[in-house]
Write a structure and sequence with these properties.
4-stranded antiparallel β-sheet; Alpha-Beta Plaits; 7 helices; alpha+beta; binds adenosine-3',5'-cyclic-monophosphate; 20% strand; 139 residues
Amino acid sequence: MKERTLSIIKPDCVSNRNAGKVIDILEEKGFSIVAMKKIKLTKKQAEGFYIVHKERPFYESLCTFMSEGPIIAMVLEKENAVADYRELMGATNPKEASKGTLRAMFATDIERNAVHGSDSLESADFEIGYFFNALEILQ
Ligand code: CMP
């Protein structure tokens, strides 16, 4: 079944000028880019996006990081997009990420880990709606 997932190229990866390489790999791996925007989140906007993590010890630092510079948010579409994109990203901690994954290639550490992807179809619905309105993802 064709699915949609939200991908974010995080501030570390944008400022390192690796965004183009990530997008190139996404297309090579068969993901279609339904919508894309480059924006700088406020701290509050980052907090809202990561609300499910609000009790975690890393929440404050994560939201500061995610609002330090521009990000690129994308809606990706393909068969099995949620799981396939998570596999392509690799483990959250780049030290544990398999060779060839985006995090193995572009992440610095467990927080500055280059990319984000929705972890389920339910999260994808919330996360896509956080960044894009209905018209922007009409296709
Ligand atoms: P992401 O996939 O965007 O989901 C939550 C983010 O929190 C994660 O990537 C990392 O950027 C960050 N994160 C997760 N676990 C930790 C941790 N133990 N320490 C610091 N940051 C973390």
